[in-house]
Write a structure and sequence with these properties.
It is built from 16 helices and 20 strands. With 548 residues, it is an alpha/beta fold. The structure holds NADP nicotinamide-adenine-dinucleotide phosphate. The site of NADP nicotinamide-adenine-dinucleotide phosphate has 25 residues, from helix 5.
Amino acid sequence: MASLAPGQSRPAAPSAAATYDAVIIGAGFAGLYQLLTLRDKLGLKARVLEAGDGVGGTWYWNRYPGARCDSESYYYSYSFSDEVQQEWSWSERYPEHGEIRRYLNFVADKFDLKRDIQFNTRVASAEYDAAANLWRLRTEAGESLSARFLITAVGCLSSANIPNIAGLERFSGQWYHTGRWPQEGVDFTGKRVGLIGTGSTGIQAAPVIAAQAAHLTVFQRTANYSIPARNGPVGPEELREIKANYAAIREKARGSTNGHPFDIAEDSPLDLDEPARLARYEAAWERGGLRFRAAFRDLLTNKAANDTASDFIRAKIRTIVRDPRVAEMLTPKDHPFATKRPPIDTEYFETFNRDNVTLVDIKATPIESITPTGIRTSEAEYPLDIIVFATGFDAMTGPLLAIDIRGRDGLSLREAWSAGPRTYLGLQVAGFPNMFTITGPGSPSVLTNMPVAIEQHVDWITACIGHMRRQGLQRIEARPEAAERWVAHVNEAANATLLPLANSSWYLGANVPGKPRVFMPYAGGMANYARRCAEVAANDYEGFVLAR
Ligand code: NAP
């Protein structure tokens, strides 16, 4: 069995068919906080099942070179405990994956959570037993558990998308997916490395790999926009100020569109003359980070406004990249800025000025196969020792559908979602009583700073279960008609933005062959969404059936 992380205690394995009030799947940000609230606030018997051998969720698996958060550390963190906020000190503006794991271990140890987390346990199936009003779970190791409530905290980006490229099994070198990175790391020294994928992950990894490898070949299907992160240490003065102002910072994040504690400008780039507009963009570029999107109010709703931002970034790419042919290949043309999740970077475009880096346009010259010694495109063969797949995830629905989840009358979640995910508020699926999906499809989730969305969901679920226990209620289930109305509203919210214009976005499921194209997250804004959830609860959980 794998060794324990510092401070980790090994929980006893449950006896056959152990019964819990709640089983939570996943021990990332969501699962840890959900365990804490159910166990310590409501006094429930709760257990977390976690596939990894430590806490961390996405940060447990994503240890690829350059992996760090692209929301800023001081607000990519829990807000529920002022003690945690005051005791923990972030070292960098954008925390690196190891620092986030240390933070989550600190939280888990502080609240003694690990005794109720069963590590190295992957859930194979979960079936609702209507007669007993219980969820019956089986793990891949064959253990059985049952619980009144099933809460999925599986993350939105945890099911790796490994493209089906002919010949991979014959490759004689090593290959890795960034979302399943070996804990011991990978040494690129002296190696010829091929990197497939130029999303947030590939864009973070490329500069770090290039600095170590003998040669890096980047296989790009779609050119991407990226904003400089401007990472750096957080100084003691800044840290003091953040800690002194946490209440206001959190309030601002919760009241925002996307969970970030900063203001979005109130004007449009179309209101300004060109010098003033460019000056605004320059300042935003210099400050760096996802906040670039807040330079104007309508970058995601008005195509003409967005064009000014897209053109600004295209011009930056042409300035940074010395070879005009390479700069042209790196210039995004087929989607407006930020309609795919925008990456932020540390010297990504500069990396293509290095002598040991080659860019291959695989839209123009597609990959035909992986050979024993490298990658063959329609034009050339690239000899490689290591292939890195930064090819993303079967997002949002993938991690849920990887478990055989069955609701009433044996209806599988896969069947229920055959035309795309259908939820009520992203919290429940009709036909799946007492199952809650933290940051499920149909909730703001990935369009926000995740801890804000997670805390809102966990608090809502906890309040709901608390209400049920006080009222002697045993079952809660979304009404199909409420779910239908919510799905229509989710579509409406997406269509009010430019987001659906990016054809190959994972928001739409378009990156996974055969996946239904449905805009999955809720684009109506975090604060609006939280208000709606609160109204639903206040109106006696309208849209849900509650039963004894
Ligand atoms: P992604 O955004 O889905 O990007 C995957 C890349 O792989 C794209 O360039 C895609 O090309 C390419 N690709 C996919 N299948 C391919 C195939 N069969 N052949 C060739 N290329 C293929 O995935 P990601 O970069 O892992 O990022 C996913 C999300 O994770 C991000 O959007 C972000 O929300 C999150 N993330 C966050 C951080 C952070 O906080 N620091 C870091 C990394 C990721 P196409 O564009 O043509 O599909």
